[in-house]
Each structure stands twice: as C-alpha cells, then as structure tokens.
Amino acid sequence: MKSPWPLKPFLVIATFALGITLPQYIPQWYNWRIYEWSAAPAILDFQPRSRAAAPMQEEMERLRPDTVPVKADDSKIHDPGGAMDNFYAALLKTERRQGNAVTRILHYGDSPTTADLITADVRNFLQTRFGDAGHGTYLIAKPWAWYAHRGLDVTASGWKMDPATLHGQKDGRYGLGGVSFTGSAGAESKITLRNAGHTRLSLSYFAQPDGGEVSIDAGDVHITTLDTSSPEAAAVEQTWPIPAEAQKFQIKVTRGTARLFGVTFRKDSPGVMYDSIGLNGTWAGVLASHVNGQHWIEELRMAKPNLVVINYGTNESGYRNYVDTTYPKDVKEILRRVKTAVPEASILMMSPMDRGAREQGGTIGTMPTLPQLVSVQARLAAENGCAFFNTFQAMGGPGTMGKWYMAEPRLVSADFIHPLPSGARIVGTLLYQALVDGYNSYKLKQLRQNMAAVPKQTVGSKP
C-alpha cells in the first residue's frame, strides 16, 4: 500500500523537527537552539513593539554596542597595592630607551589566546608606542587547526604533539607554551615571518640522555646543528644570531628523537615583547596540576617576564561546583608558582569576557556562573597581592555577547563565546588602554615623589 506521505519530504520535516527539539534536552547543544518551545504561547499573545523615546539612538546602540560608554572604574585596572609598579618601572625604562631595555609580557589564556585574538592587538598597540623587541614565543607546530599568531605561520610534519590539557606527558614538562613536541629523524617545522627584522632566535627544548640532533636554518643560511642529548634531563633554552633579513626558518630533527617546546624571535632593540600563550579548552587546573611545578618555574625564570597575565575563566564558568570548590585552590597554586619563579614580576589577573547563553524566550543572556566567577577572581587577586582587570564589566557586563551577536557586523561567533576579529580588537583596545592609564598614573606618582624629594629653596637664598 502506498504511503499517503511522500517519504523524502517527511524525512526532511522530521529531521528539522529533531534539529529544533533535541537542543532543548542535550546540555552540550544548549547554545545551538534555534527555537524556544516555551515561548510558543507568546505567539498567540503578540504584543506590538513599543515606540522608543529615542529610536535612532536605540538602533545605533544595537548596531554598535561597543560605542555605549561604561563606567570609568570598570575600564581600569584595580591595583590599590601597586602590584603593577614593577611592570610600569620596566616600561618606563623601555620608553626612555635606557640601554637595551626590553619589557616582556607573558599572557596566559584559553581559546581566544590560542588564535592570538586580543593579544595580537595589544601587542601591536604596545610595540607601536614603546618599540618592537620581537614577536616572542611561538609553538613548534599547530596543536589545533586554529592555532595562529599574527605575523607568523608554520607548516609542520612528523611531530607527536602533547598539550598540557590532555596530560599526555606524564612528567608534566610542556615548556613555557604548554605543549610538548616529540619527533624522530625527519620531523620538521617551517616557520614564515611576515616581516623581517628579527636578529636572534631561541629554541626551548628538553635535554635528555638519549636526545637527538636538530638542525636550524634561516633560508639558505645554516644557523646551527644542536645536540639535545645531556647526561641529566633538564629544560634548556639556547639562543643564536640570525640574519635580520631572514623570514623563512626550518627546524628539523636530523638524528634520533628530540623533544622541543617552542621558538622565540627577538630583536636587539628596546621595546616590548608580548608572548601570547594560549591553550585550547584549558582551565586553571592545568597550570596548577597538569604542569610540573618545578619545570614551569624554571621556564618562567628563563623567560624573565616583567608582567604575567593570567586570563582564564571562560571554560570554568560552565561548572558551578568547580568554581565554588576547587577553582580558588587552583588559582592560588598558579599564583604561588609564578611568585616563586619570578617574584620581581607583576601579576595581572584578567577576567574572562562575557559568555552568552540562551534564556527563556530566546534572548541571549549571560552564563549564570560567570559573574560569580569574576567576583571570585577579584577577591583572589586582592588576597594574593595581584592586580585585576575586569574584562567582563569593561566590555559592558551582563548580556554583552547577546548585543555583540545582534550587532551589524557581528562581533562574536554563534557560540556566544569566541569573539570575531572585530570583537577581539575591542577587548584588546580596552586592555591596552587600561595598561596605559595605569602606566600614566604611575609616571605621575613618580613625578610627584621626585618633586617632593627636592629640598625647597628658602626665601632670599641663592639659586
């Protein structure tokens, strides 16, 4: 008997019905809902949109939510104890071109940092004003397809890649960048710089008794052949001069097995080096427990940063129980490790951006746990003598990602988490401006202290 329903149209309708229904019941698909069944009764009770008192202003705020002003205090770094002073002092030496003064910033973050979003803009702004001391750290290969740094690219083959998030290396050694790369003879990486001008290259690797041999070339120029074997296992960083005009580099394992971490490009001039160190899907527990503490401390000491930015929280915000229990312990351990390694460095805790979530009625609100997590971060920063930047409030607070998603053009992707380049630039500008505002306040404070230290001339005395 022939079915009264044509099979193909029926399957299409059924598939569509499943597509709009399943996300209601599968938490992992929550943000992909395209229809809110609970809002169906509202269709029968349609209310016309009320007329706005200022329709032009309302529409402009919808199209360009980044132009809506925020409170002045929300856009500044909270630093009542002067935790940023050492960083500002280093930046002042760089600005004055005192010797070969390089100010180095390590920015640890999650997936946006993995793609050099936000960090690329801050790097560009700082280097434009204070000078370019080099790109900083770059991984040997791409652990994730979207790993990218502005101004660099890499093609690689033959590497076994172990990010710290997956706990692939039982010894917990992942270098400064959080990823270990193991390759036998033939494994290679070809790195291309968009612009020339770097004068030194550093390679971070793990020396061990059975370490292999690595060849490094800059175009047609052979830089070195490195033997990574050593009687004792240890993390090592070595640096070599490179031709300033070189833009293409090859790092290749030529004998045995070598374990590498990352490469750093430097310039012999005063300026800022801004290292973007992102781990996809990471959370505070990775740096607190997955990474070998003594190893990371040694890596930080070799890097000699003036500022360490801890920019986590997006992934943690989906787990209220973790935020309430283990998260504070993990953050304290991260801060302890950084202070042990580089006690002279400033530490800036940077909150995550807003994280959008569909609410009843289909509107895009904020993940409920996020404001609580930001409050915990602010408290931990204050208790541990660190500065704090509230990215969440600086960008607009609750509901910002919903506004960004409705903006034209959009500023955030459809997951309401990952900013598009234009959105990332907004956050990068906010962070840069907060750093510069803090720096200017520091310089003003130094000026007042210097003036107060100068003895006042008495009336009638000779100058």
Automatic annotation (TrEMBL):
Highest taxon of the lineage: Bacteria
Entry coiled-coil feature ranges: none
Domain SGNH hydrolase-type esterase: 278-426
InterPro entries to which the protein is assigned, alphabetical: SGNH_hydro, SGNH_hydro_sf
One function term, GO molecular function aspect: hydrolase activity, acting on ester bonds
The name this protein goes by in its record: SGNH hydrolase-type esterase domain-containing protein
Native source species: Paludibaculum fermentans
